[in-house]
Amino acid sequence: MPTVEPTAEPTTEQATDRTAATAGLSERLRNLPDAYVLLPEYTWTEDDVFARDRAVVVGSGRFRWTGAAADLPDGYADLPTVDLAGHALTPGLVDCHQHLAQTLGRPYAFGEPSEIFKRVWVPLEGALTEDELAVSARLGLVDAMLGGFTTVADAGARVDHDLGILADEAEETGVRLVLGRICHDRGPGAGDGDRAVADAGEHLARFTGDRVRGSVAVATPEMAEPATLTRLAGLCREAGAVFQTHVNEHLAGVERTLLATGRRPLGVMEDAGAVGPWLLAAHATLLTPQEKLLLARSGAAWSYNPVASAWKGNVIADALSLLALGARTGLGTDGTRADGFRLMDAAETAQRFASAVEVGDPVAGGGTAWLRAATSAGADAVGLGDVTGTVGAGYRADFLVLDLATPDFIRPVDLAWELVRLGHRDQIRAVATDGAARVVDGVPLCLDHAALLDDAARASSDACQRAGL
């Protein structure tokens, strides 16, 4: 019987050297200076490929230069360097559809049929105190960072509290936030159209920064009068802001709109002149062929939320067709779970089961498509394509350092595919925004994580009981 020679065990000295190197890198990542050079083994470039042996210069919160390490300009030669051998550098991930006011309701998010918002989310949001809203947002943002997200688009909260609470939490944690304000003039508690448009204008004027950017939101097209949809879309077009809404998500909602108007939800938006480059359509799971063409040709963006579809949807969105049509496509969690790698895996897997298997398509989009959707295309979808989502000169230095020395990555061949299929949040050595580390080795640097979990448990119990869940 053949024998296999056992692999030599590492010596004590070798093990000590590796431990010291790991500890040394962690310490350097925790204390990044204002300007420095990263030397990753692999870098996800502006061309949507992984390049080896690049140098990435960071200064004053931005990427200043990227290129072959051998070509590093003399002006950067004296900067401190961080050796990232055995690591990959990618842009921070973008969550294109989140609900930060719903984080405390996670224990009630399972086993529910469609339109869970009526039974769980609306009562919960209405029950939150200011302090509970702050804790909910803080928990959601920190969890997002732990999962690799450096940018989050919040779709709006049904609360009477000042949305500056969410903005403050984003500033504190370092997450880039697209902050939606719900502007309704139909349904319980809604004001008139003039008030909705005025509120939207004030919100967009208030939040104009790269860290917190204002956005207008209508929960569904049926929640606003057609004339109000027209005015809100015009406001967003003029301000260069994103107009968020849930479109064609659930069968019940589509049928309700058909019965009330004779049009499907996306058709209601089209009639109001509200479908265009400013639109960020969430879910878009129930689109006819004509609606897919409309969405793609209009220049609108959409958020593909595959985990949400699996948990409480009617059907999987036809993302492969929309990508083929050139639709601007990002990925969103919808507040399900904050792991960007599991989200990319779900995006590919859902398309495989929904359509690719039956037509003999072994690619189902490919690793590059889903990694792009989670980074540069996602940033474009939420209106920050010129700010983040790309490791390139001039962009904000929002990035992930990923450890490739794991059993999953024995020898990278197509690293994009491997990250989509095999990547996980445990690989994240560091999460940085504006060039500053926010998470290192799974530990958020901005707060006491254990205390946050305690605060969240208490706030969840109190708020959910008050909401009658």
UniProtKB/TrEMBL annotation:
<feature type="region of interest" description="Disordered">
    <location>
        <begin position="1"/>
        <end position="20"/>
    </location>
</feature>
<dbReference type="InterPro" id="IPR032466">
    <property type="entry name" value="Metal_Hydrolase"/>
</dbReference>
<protein>
    <submittedName>
        <fullName>Amidohydrolase family protein</fullName>
    </submittedName>
</protein>
<dbReference type="InterPro" id="IPR050287">
    <property type="entry name" value="MTA/SAH_deaminase"/>
</dbReference>
<feature type="domain" description="Amidohydrolase-related">
    <location>
        <begin position="89"/>
        <end position="416"/>
    </location>
</feature>
<keyword id="KW-0378">Hydrolase</keyword>
<dbReference type="Pfam" id="PF01979">
    <property type="entry name" value="Amidohydro_1"/>
</dbReference>
<dbReference type="InterPro" id="IPR006680">
    <property type="entry name" value="Amidohydro-rel"/>
</dbReference>
<dbReference type="InterPro" id="IPR011059">
    <property type="entry name" value="Metal-dep_hydrolase_composite"/>
</dbReference>
<dbReference type="GO" id="GO:0016810">
    <property type="term" value="F:hydrolase activity, acting on carbon-nitrogen (but not peptide) bonds"/>
</dbReference>
<feature type="compositionally biased region" description="Low complexity">
    <location>
        <begin position="1"/>
        <end position="14"/>
    </location>
</feature>
